[in-house]
Design brief:
Blueprint (H helix, E strand, L loop, with lengths): L2 H28 L3 E3 H5 L6 E3 L2 E3 L2 E3 L5 H42 L5 H5 L1 H4 L4 H9 L3 H28 L5 H27 L5 H21 L1 H15 L8
Antiparallel strand pairs: 1-4, 2-3
């Protein structure tokens, strides 16, 4: 491995790592917002029938970024193997814990008088309550997110590597989609089971119904984003300039 290639490979890992960590952290914080997909794109409610009940496409805003997190996972796995994915996943979990601790600390600070007064101009009753409502999340939701993220990432890396080995390094779409199908199944349900079934008063049926909606959305996004995955492969191969590199 020549010096130029080694330097570019290290730069690639840093760039992918920064994007990976940023997406993971931001997804956790914007995940406090629940949005309606139908209203966002201007269509009538879908009223999906899941186990006898009707549900609309109401999801956490975190789903905007998670498809990109798993694309980054596949790219990192492709060029740096499961060890690279695990390394970044562990770092991401530590950074998420650190971020939540700092946010909790910020929530405990007393707001300045002029800052509190500015709430009137924004049409809200309390800046402190607004801040805490946006950034504050239940500890079980945080725990569920972290557990689901870590398990999902490790499983994604394992399944990706197995499919890559069995297919003899062919069919990028197969290993990318196959690993996402398995890992997103775990991710979609674990966080809801931990946060709302074990940590709340929600029924297991409700958890499974909402998890199914999130899972279907993530699968659709994984397929839609396949061209982006191929494009990134092309860009990275050109950047590294060595087609014979063993990506394992």
């Amino acid at each position: 491995m020549n010096v130029k290639f080694s330097h570019r490979r290290n730069n690639l890992f840093l760039i992918l790592g920064f994007f990976f960590l940023t997406n993971a952290i931001v997804a956790e914080f914007i995940g406090a917002k629940i949005f309606s997909l139908e209203k966002t794109i201007g269509i009538a409610p879908l009223n999906l029938k899941i186990w006898g009940d009707s549900y609309n496409m109401d999801m956490t805003a975190g789903v905007l970024l998670w498809p990109f997190v798993f694309i980054l996972t596949d790219i990192i796995n492709e060029y740096f193997g499961p060890k690279g994915v695990r390394k970044l996943s562990y770092i991401a979990v530590l950074m998420l814990v650190y971020s939540f601790v700092m946010v909790r600390a910020a929530m405990g600070l007393e707001g300045a008088d002029f800052w509190q007064f500015s709430a009137q101009n924004l049409g809200i009753k309390s800046m402190t309550n607004a801040f805490n409502s946006v950034f504050g999340q239940g500890l079980m939701i945080i725990l569920g997110s972290l557990v689901a993220f870590l398990i999902g990432q490790i499983i994604d890396a394992f399944v990706f590597a197995q499919i890559k080995k069995k297919s003899q390094n062919r069919f990028i779409w197969l290993r990318a989609t196959g690993s996402t199908v398995v890992s997103q199944f775990i991710d979609s349900y674990v966080v809801l089971v931990v946060a709302f079934y074990l940590g709340g008063n929600y029924s297991l049926k409700w958890v499974l119904q909402v998890g199914t909606i999130n899972y279907l959305y993530k699968l659709a996004m994984a397929i839609i984003l396949l061209p982006l995955l191929y494009f990134l492969h092309h860009v990275i191969d050109n950047y590294l300039g060595d087609k014979k590199v063993n990506r394992n």
